[in-house]
Amino acid sequence: MTQPPTMPGGLPFLGKLPALARNPLAVFEQARSLGDVVRIPVPLRFPLFVLTNPAHIRHVLQENAANYRRTPFHDRLKAVLGEGMLTSEGALWQRQRRLLQPAFRAERIRRFVRIMAGAASDLAERWEAEAGRTIDVSQAMSDLTLDIAVGCMFGGQQRGGDARITAAVLEVQDWISGRFWSLAPEWTERLPTPANRRFRHALSVLDEAIEEIIAKRLAAAEPGDDLLGMLLAAQGDGDRGVDARQVRDEAMTMILAGHETSAAALSWAWHLLALHPEVEARIRDEVARVLGPRTVPTPGDLAQLAYTEATLQEAMRLYPPAGWFPRLAAAPDRLGGHDIPAGSIIALSPWVVQRDARFWPDPERFDPTRFIGEARPAPYTYFPFSGGPRTCIGNHFAMTEMLAALAVMVPRVRPRHGSNAPVEPHLQITLRPAGGLPMRIERVLDR
Ligand code: HEM
């Protein structure tokens, strides 16, 4: 047996648990200097390892993916997402992935560009009217991506966000991430503590919103050919079908997985553009060249916005919305000559790998040209959307909506920081600017 190095400095009885609960990314970053496979001492039911070598990450996510399963972390998510595609496993997961894959094909997503660009245009118009005022850009991005997710996947019409829903999403995230590193037994989740009560209330807000969307669609003459339509059409389809609970779980999964992540990426993109006006100017030039006098991009236009796309990729390199995610080793395995016992939790962190100077020279520097041209990042030195069979199904959807948002908004508006105070990342389930992103909105007058 070769044991991987164990990270020093854990507290008696608690190990690194308090540090993980406070800032898991800092702990994983510290582990990087100790080796490719490092054990983190925690008094949990499972050994915890962090991997920082891209070849090992590929092994876990791709080559030996069948051995690496959902974890207690995903079980915590089940309190909200049920058995949706993100949390389910085995035959159920396979059936869901197969059923919904067509909703995420490129030709389907092309049809959504109108909705995506329309929502971004509405927001640009509101921001133009609010020029000079300071708003929370992070909150505005949550509202925008929620509009887009509901509009594209569920045919909803709302505009300007729904503060109750975005607040409920944040509350639910807070509760789940707080519970994950907690040693308290599961039954304590049912105690009427203030945090548990707030969580239950937030969950009921989300459930009601989803129920309403489903009820409206059921009352309509046509099921529709969007994601919800596909789910409802599959209801009652014998063994291959889904039941009402499954429709609810999948809808909840798509709304939550599909809007907070893109909102985080767009928020960081605005933050970085404000710090790098030369990048912003180059995007504006590219959009002007490709769109000419038009203000709303077509799918064909988006395919030509190579620099704008590279900017989004670079923003997600520095600030990956999923800062880390876990896997559970079902059977023993070997990684880099070390034994990984069955039942281990493996932490994979895009944040740590994508800021590693071995793979990314001058890693802290924001430079979209890293993603321009023929050179592609080496496998698993860049994996904001994960990889392998359980790679993000919404990858192309997300890139399209974010491109549409920047292509519409950058030529019209320019958010700026009110002060030089550093903007710190805060990880709940997604990596967001701590305390929001207050920025002053300026109009771009020279268009
Ligand atoms: C910038 C935006 C996004 C990022 C960075 C992102 C990232 C990720 C990551 C890292 C995973 C793997 C999680 C794990 O296995 O534990 C994942 C899975 C998933 N994502 Fe995304 N995501 C984004 C947008 C979206 C969108 C727009 C949707 C839906 C419309 C979506 C739906 C899903 C689903 C359903 C899964 C589970 C897939 C499976 O296990 O088969 N995501 N995403």
Automatic annotation (TrEMBL):
Domain of life: Bacteria
Coiled-coil region(s): none
Name of the featured protein: Cytochrome P450
Pfam families: p450
Record-linked InterPro entries: Cyt_P450, Cyt_P450_CS, Cyt_P450_E_grp-I, Cyt_P450_sf, Cytochrome_P450_Monoox
UniProt entry keywords in alphabetical sequence: Heme, Iron, Metal-binding, Monooxygenase, Oxidoreductase
Family of the protein in this entry: Belongs to the cytochrome P450 family.
Species this protein is from: Sabulicella glaciei
